[in-house]
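pls design
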């Protein structure tokens, strides 16, 4: 199969009440591990990379690896660009082969966010690429984007409705109390707000800050219409922890093919748990 747009995958997920996990990947091995996990689960999959990872690996390399995965796999796979504020990079990634992009203009006033999102949606429609935009401000650290607790801002349900109407954006990430990174305590998720947004906005909603949210709360978010669940930090930490442990136990082993094996297994195991939690096992068409 070829890489597919995530729009129909997420529409179906929202209609049927399950979630599709979007895994942030940073290396070829992480990509392979989440693809293996999704294949084993017969689940649709969204691979996603941050702007930092695009700069680190190059959009073409990421696209080639994702295309190879899609060609060999028997499940639908989309490739998404996470939190991008740079229109030119979004265009570059779309032309390189990304099938979904996030224009993050959440730091601008509403009208400017609308304007910037509309511009991306126009081109994305022609190229059959999904678009995600953010309203409110998700707190925490994601690559170079740092939003302090004081600056984090929850999305306004009425604004969400107007935003989707005027921009035609096919997926929306409203800030509802989650944050990027690992939580100090429990996240303070505003379920009532998600419910109200969900009643006003019929496009699939996106749950950012998916690492470290208690399982029941993730399920509750999905039941309220959050169809895309982003997981970055937990996956990255598991991968790195596995490497640390390997080198503690094998300080003189220098062959990447040895230490990448347990790291891949660790990522795969965690990815299966997340897919199970999102309820997308067996949903691949
Ligand atoms: P976490 O790093 O908290 O998993 O958040 C991921 C995310 O929302 C990426 O946009």
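designed seq:
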């Amino acid at each position: 199969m070829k890489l597919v747009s995530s729009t129909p995958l997420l529409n179906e997920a929202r209609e049927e009440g399950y979630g599709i996990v979007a895994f942030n990947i940073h290396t070829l091995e992480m990509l392979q591990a989440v693809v293996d996990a999704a294949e084993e689960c017969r689940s649709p999959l969204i691979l996603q990379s941050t702007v930092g990872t695009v700069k680190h690996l190059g959009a073409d390399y990421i696209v080639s690896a994702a295309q190879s995965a899609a060609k060999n796999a028997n499940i639908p796979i989309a490739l998404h660009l996470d939190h991008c504020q740079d229109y030119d990079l979004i265009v570059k990634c779309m032309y390189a082969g990304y099938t979904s992009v996030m224009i993050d203009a959440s730091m601008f006033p509403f009208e400017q966010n609308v304007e910037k999102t509309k511009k991306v949606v126009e081109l994305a429609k022609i190229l059959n690429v999904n678009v995600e935009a953010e309203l409110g401000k998700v707190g925490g650290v994601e690559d170079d984007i740092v939003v302090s607790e004081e600056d984090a801002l929850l999305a306004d349900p009425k604004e969400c409705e107007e935003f989707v109407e005027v921009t035609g954006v096919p997926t929306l990430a409203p800030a509802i109390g989650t944050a990027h990174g690992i939580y100090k305590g429990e996240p303070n998720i505003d379920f009532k707000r998600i419910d109200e947004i969900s009643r006003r906005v019929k496009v699939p909603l996106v749950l950012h800050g998916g690492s470290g949210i208690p399982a029941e709360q993730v399920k509750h978010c999905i039941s309220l219409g959050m169809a895309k669940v982003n997981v970055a930090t937990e996956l990255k930490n598991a991968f790195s922890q596995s490497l640390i442990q390997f080198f503690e136990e094998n300080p003189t082993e220098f062959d990447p093919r040895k230490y990448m094996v347990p790291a891949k297994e660790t990522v795969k195991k965690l990815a299966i748990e997340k897919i199970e939690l999102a309820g997308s096992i067996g949903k691949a068409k």
